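Dear Dr. H.,

I hope your travels went smoothly. While you were away I took the liberty of generating a structure for the chain from your last submission, since the lab meeting agenda had it listed for discussion. I wanted you to have the full record in hand beforehand rather than looking at slides cold. The sequence, exactly as received, is reproduced here:
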Amino acid sequence: MRPIRVSDGSVWVELRQRNADWLGPWEATPPGGGPPIVPSRLVFTAMRRSLARQARTGQALPFAVTYDGRFAGQLTIASIVRGSLNSGFAGYWLDSAVAGRGVMPTALALVVDHCFAVVGLHRVEVNIRPENTASRRVVEKLGFRHEGVRLCYLHIDGGYRDHIGYALTAEDVPGGLLRRWRGGQSG
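The corresponding predicted structure, in token form, is as follows:
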């Protein structure tokens, strides 16, 4: 895990293009039938700048996921709200070439531990389409609590789609999520 860098642009575009069919069914889309967003250097630059601005104001924590020292995906804690809620939402994607190797569960565990121990968040949520079994397996392996179905939650692929809500609080992982994950204490 590391910050997203300007130099990640080319590999980000290549991975997003190569994985378009694999990631497409799960990607948020703008309502109203606008044209699909095609991965490009311009899109990467705008996304990175937006995430950097949100990070500076404490609204997001964007990370590059790496595998064998190479950029392999992205994980962002977004919509961070402080005060009595003190929570954020995790979203992630990974290159299909490295899927199934424990990369994303490890990355998510690292980031959740950072959120709880360093950033001081109390709760991290993840919302996943019911059909996205690979992503659901990530949070289930880590022991995220199933909290119900959010009807018509997010616009994806031309319509508002239901999502399953999962969450963890700091009290759920007093010794740290990565430690629990590595110790095999989760499902």
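Two observations you may find useful: Strands lie at 61-67, 70-81, 87-94, 123-128, 145-156, 159-169. The domain at 6-182 is CATH 3.40.630.30 (Aminopeptidase).

With kind regards,
E. W.
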